[in-house]
Design a protein that fits this description.
Number of helices: 5
Radius of gyration: 22 Å
Structural class: mainly beta
Strand content: 35-45%
Largest sheet: 5 strands, antiparallel
Helix content: under 10%
Number of strands: 39
Strand order of the largest sheet: 1-7-6-5-4
């Protein structure tokens, strides 16, 4: 819990916008009750509230006037290596967000004026060795503090009013493990939860619970062989380098005091076991608790329940997508969770499978997933060498970490699907852990079109429980940013080419669009400041999923920078 130096700059005006009075109230108490209540003016946690609807009830901007939407102000965070992937948060008219290298900003939500900024001092030599960095996907708010993770394994608490470091806790030996934190933390009831990167990195993928007041570590849960039961699902001591992790924030169920979290894939990504994966290959067995949904006790971090969505995941279709959409339907309390494969799981509040449906058209890693039991049928398990038929979907998934949106007014779930595949050549590997951990992929691969024809993406409006589709909008390249729906009967989608679109939530009719000048791969929210509604989004391309865009699609992607970004905020003219 050492306090480490960083760069704090207060009251520096870097953004542009109209002159409007600063927020009259600043950083009122943000606690569990307030996050759960989800007041319409704020956006207090990654998905807006613990229900994870990613929905704003604000309706000042609506289907009748969205054509008058215009840029209100822009903020440039600087040093946006690999673009911007952050989800902004708003409390009491103050907008908080992060850029690459965990740069953290507090801005006047009405004008964009910088109230404070904080640039942590990081281990630059370590970051140069990492592949899944230096982007940061967001922060958490609670108890007067803003919490942000770093790529060198720290969790930092900043005073919401001043940006002053309140505590700085080292949680990971990133210098040895080569991974850190890129996902946003989650605040709940005095605890900050954050999951480590993992997956193809040979570690054990911990998730941490940290005391929000002091920064002291309360508990640690290992997603690889974290219980005696799980240890038995890793043959040949493969648990020692099993990967896992939980790099996106989950959510909190206050009724049961439970943290819901999605876990990452095992290492190596691609196994050469063939059909005998229970006893053969790099990591024999089901590999618990990777590619799973887990429920942890908030206070102790003890496992309460789990469902492994993909036992022995041999395709890198993990469960780390952080959406846990909480719904009440026909007297049942349900949780909707998208798996990276494009299959959407519907659970009860103890992770018992109630339904499974698929958002993608092109999928062949399994023949199906049983909608009653969640059991995989017709698995494709590979041996070493070239795989004859392309694998669908592509390694970037049928869905990615970008959030969908559930609108309680329409009852529809708005979610992006991705139609792409890849050729695959499985290669035997040996885990490298010294002197520093190295990637363990287990294959060479290349993007390929799906059997249905061209690569494309689509925005679907579906029943979140049954998967019944009401409408679809197609995009020539898969969008990689999050989706927002609002009480104004609108759905906003920032696409990969740089255009943000607004659609009628009932029909899918496009009502407005605007070009932000560079691709999107981050968050989008809505909030109110000074009685006015705003829509804020991060723009800036360059993350791992976008690596194939320039060589595959050409066009605007050939000249699109991969090292800049901006926060763009809209309001009515």
């Amino acid at each position: 819990m050492k306090k480490r130096p960083g760069y704090l700059v207060e009251f520096v005006a870097l953004a542009i916008g109209a002159t409007v009075a600063a927020p009259s109230t600043f950083a009122q108490s943000v606690d569990t009750a307030r996050i759960e209540a989800a007041g319409q003016n704020d956006w207090l946690t990654y998905h807006g509230s613990y229900k994870s609807h990613h929905y704003s009830p604000l309706a000042q901007i609506n289907t009748n006037n969205v054509g008058n939407l215009a840029v209100a102000w822009i903020h440039i965070p600087g040093r946006s290596t690999r673009g911007l992937q952050s989800m902004p948060l708003v409390a009491d008219g103050v907008l908080y967000y992060t850029g690459s290298y965990s740069r953290t900003f507090a801005l006047n939500g009405a004008t964009g004026e910088v109230i404070w900024s904080y640039f942590p001092e990081l281990d630059e030599a370590l970051i140069a060795r990492q592949t899944h960095s230096p982007y940061n996907r967001g922060l958490a708010l609670g108890e007067g503090k803003a919490y942000v993770g770093t790529m060198d394994g720290r969790l930092i608490a900043l005073d919401m009013k001043t940006g002053k470091v309140m505590w700085d806790t080292k949680l990971l030996d990133s210098q040895k493990l080569t991974v850190g934190f890129t996902g946003a933390p989650l605040y709940a009831k005095g605890t900050v939860i954050i999951g480590a990167q993992g997956g193809e990195w040979p570690g054990r993928g911990p998730i941490f619970g940290v005391d929000a007041a002091t920064g002291k570590k309360k508990w640690e849960f290992l997603t690889v062989a974290g219980t005696d039961e799980a240890m038995k699902t890793w043959g040949s001591d493969s648990w020692r380098t099993g990967g896992g992790g939980g790099w996106m924030p989950g959510t909190y169920d206050s009724e049961t005091n439970t943290i819901w979290w999605g876990t990452a894939n095992p290492a190596p990504l691609y196994d050469w076991s063939g059909s005998d994966y229970k006893t053969q290959g790099a990591r024999p067995g089901d590999n618990l608790y990777t590619s799973s949904v887990i429920g942890l006790d908030l206070e102790s971090g003890k496992l309460k329940f789990y469902h492994q969505e993909l036992p022995h995941d041999a395709w890198d279709f993990d469960s780390a997508v952080g959406e846990f959409v909480m719904l009440d339907r026909d007297g049942q309390k349900l949780v909707v969770h998208p798996n990276k494969s494009g299959y959407i799981f519907v659970y009860d509040r103890s992770a018992k499978v109630k339904n499974v449906w698929r958002i993608t058209e092109n999928s062949n890693f399994v023949k199906n997933i049983d909608p009653k039991t969640g059991e995989l049928t017709g698995r494709r398990d590979f041996s070493a060498g070239k795989v004859e038929e392309p694998l669908c979907p592509h390694i970037s998934g049928g869905v990615s970490f970008n959030a969908g949106s559930y609108n309680p007014k329409t009852g529809l779930y708005y979610k992006l699907g991705q139609e792409w595949c890849m050729t695959l050549d499985v290669v035997k590997t040996t885990p490298v852990t010294a002197p520093q951990a190295q990637l363990n992929i287990g294959a060479n691969f290349k993007i390929a079109p799906p059997p249905s024809g061209e690569i494309y993406g689509h925005l679907d409006a579906r029943d979140p429980v049954t998967g019944a589709k009401k409408w679809e909008v197609r995009f020539p390249e898969p969008p990689l940013a999050s989706v927002l729906s609002t009480g104004g009967n609108l759905v906003f989608v920032p696409d990969s080419r740089g255009v943000v679109h607004a659609y009628d939530a009932e029909s899918g009719t496009e009502l407005w669009n605007h070009n932000n000048g560079t691709g999107h791969q981050g968050g989008i929210i809505s909030y109110s400041a000074g009685g006015k509604q705003y829509v804020a989004m991060t723009a800036g391309f360059g993350g791992m999923a976008s690596d194939d865009y320039a060589p595959t699609f050409g066009g605007v992607y050939k000249s699109m920078p991969r090292d800049d970004g901006a926060l763009v905020v809209y309001s009515l003219k």
